[in-house]
Design goal:
The protein is mainly beta. It has one domain. It is about 10% helix and about 35% strand. The strands form 5 sheets. It has a 6-stranded antiparallel beta sheet with strand order 1-15-14-16-12-13, covered by helices on one side. Strand 7 and strand 8 form a beta hairpin. It is globular, with a radius of gyration of 16 Å. It starts with a strand and ends in a 5-residue tail after the last strand.
């Protein structure tokens, strides 16, 4: 099992979270919310230092996985304080507030997010709550993308796990994903879109952006990228060119 983790100190000076903004072309709720792009494209376009894929999205098929185009996100997405995709019951969300507080919330209805949310993305399963790994009915092995928060709320964890590669990494269950989050220091944890979407990219000072894991974005072929509905990234102003 190949696991990659990034710890982000929210109290560090100049740290900003960012997610894919609304499409600029004929935005429509639940129809045309974002423009699909790969996670490296997202990182480069918005001058970020690290990024992972985020929400599940639709339409989802062989053609949309390999091409840019409009997407509808499943669950909450907020970019720079603007709602990109509305809350959806059963789609828990990771929230970043304007005052830099972070939270993972279980969404019980389709109401608006709390006031003051600056950035948000949604997943499908809360895998860690109050330091405990939660049981899950889905026991399948798959590539995974997850986000976690430390008990004091200071640290955010981006975690990706490679999968569908027998000689490299077969993947993880949701429970195993939760266990990894706890091992890295998370008190709360959320599973985001996984499978072929799973990607982590990092931009180091004076070096080109690098995809640190081995995505299987196209027909489970290693080192191929998928065009995802949105991504979640972090900008470190002290490191940005």
């Amino acid at each position: 099992m190949r696991v990659y983790a990034l710890r982000i100190d929210t109290e560090a000076e100049g740290i900003e979270f960012y997610s894919t903004p609304r499409t600029e072309k004929d935005f429509a709720d639940d129809v045309k919310e974002t423009d699909r792009q790969t996670t490296p494209q997202f990182l480069k376009q918005y001058n970020l230092q690290a990024a992972i894929n985020a929400n599940f999205y639709e339409p989802f098929n062989e053609e949309t996985q390999k091409t840019p185009g409009p997407s509808n996100l499943l669950g909450l997405a907020v970019s720079q304080g603007q709602i990109v995709s509305k809350n959806r019951k059963g789609r828990p969300a990771f929230l970043v507030f304007k005052d830099k507080r972070v939270a993972i919330v279980d969404v019980q209805d389709d109401s608006d997010p709390p006031a003051g949310v600056e950035t948000a993305v949604a997943g499908k399963h809360i895998v860690v709550k109050d330091g405990n790994v939660l049981p899950q009915s889905d026991e399948s092995l798959a590539p995974r993308t997850a986000v976690g928060i430390s008990k004091d709320g200071r640290y955010v964890y981006f975690v990706v796990i490679d999968g569908r590669q027998q000689t490299h990494s077969e993947g993880a269950t949701l429970v195993e994903t939760g266990n990894w989050l706890v091992q890295f220091g998370a008190w709360h944890g959320l599973n985001l879109d996984g499978g072929g979407s799973t990607t982590m990219v990092v931009q180091s000072p004076k070096e080109p952006a690098k995809v640190v894991n081995v995505p299987v974005g196209q027909k489970n072929k290693p080192n191929t990228l998928r065009y995802n509905g949105n991504s979640l990234g972090v900008r470190a102003m002290s490191l940005a060119p």
